Amino acid sequence: MVLLVVWAVVLVLAAVVLGGLAYGLFGALTRLRREVEGAERDLRPLLGQLQQTADRARQVSKGS
Questions:
Q1: Cβ–Cβ contacts within 10 Å for residue 12, how many?
Q2: How far is the C-alpha of 25 from the C-alpha of 64, rounded, in Å?
């Protein structure tokens, strides 16, 4: 009987620990996704400027 109670406690503790790890992992993934979206939003204008500069450089090199 005592062994059954010990196993039950071990299983409950394992479930709590695994649940806490999963909760933390999903929270970290959500924060990472938000950070990546923010960085993408910040860098989009710069990428457009770089594309315009590259196009202009191509035009200038074709002209000479």
A1: 10
A2: 56
Q: How far is 14 from 20, CA to CA, in rounded Å?
A: 10
Please report, for residues 8, 19, 20, the alpha-carbon distance to residue 11 in angstroms, rounded to integers and kept in the order given. 5, 12, 14
Judged on CB neighbours under 10 Å (0-12, 13-18, 19+), 23 is exposed
Q: What is the mean pLDDT of residues 34-49?
A: 95
Single pTM value for the model: 0.61
